[in-house]
Amino acid sequence: MDKVKGSCLCGAVKFTCDNDFQQFHFCHCTQCQKTTGSAHVSNLFTRVENIEWESGQEQVKRYDVPGRSLTSAFFTTCGSPVPYVSGSGKALVVPAGSLDSAPSMAPQDNIFWAERAKWYEDGLLSTKFSGIPE
Ligand SMILES: [Zn+2]
């Protein structure tokens, strides 16, 4: 099985997963906008046991949103989203941006599209630069 490594922004969290994901969703709900400070989460789903933590796990914090099956898990030093077991206990949720290389599957869909940020589609259509514009 192909492996994929992941890490947080400061590098203290390191983990490895089998590159074997069953679902990949962009969630645009208002809570996911808050957890990212951006337009949506990009979450992969895999088997609960599909993770080997190399470091940092003991400093991960978890916040479960009351009344919803929605969780924010992040490393306490740098605030980066990191993998966590879903509230139902049935899946490991892996933020796609926490991976150091590409996952085995492409995004399947955009969920909670009705709650998307008003500026999201304008952003997709706006001018692209390969780096900071001169
Ligand atoms: Zn959401």
Q: Outline of this structure?
A:
This protein has about 130 residues and is mainly β.
Describe the structure.
The chain has 134 residues and is mainly β. The chain has one domain (3-118): Metal Binding Protein, Guanine Nucleotide Exchange Factor, Chain A (Beta Complex). It has helices spanning 30-36, 120-125, and strands at residues 3-7, 14-18, 23-27, 41-46, 52-55, 60-64, 71-75, 84-85, 92-95, 109-111. It has a five-stranded mixed beta sheet with strand order 8-9-4-3-10. The longest helix has 7 residues, at 30-36. It is globular, with a radius of gyration of 15 Å. The mean pLDDT is 96. It binds zinc ion (ZN). Zinc ion (ZN) binds at residues 27, 29, 31-32, 41, 70, 112.
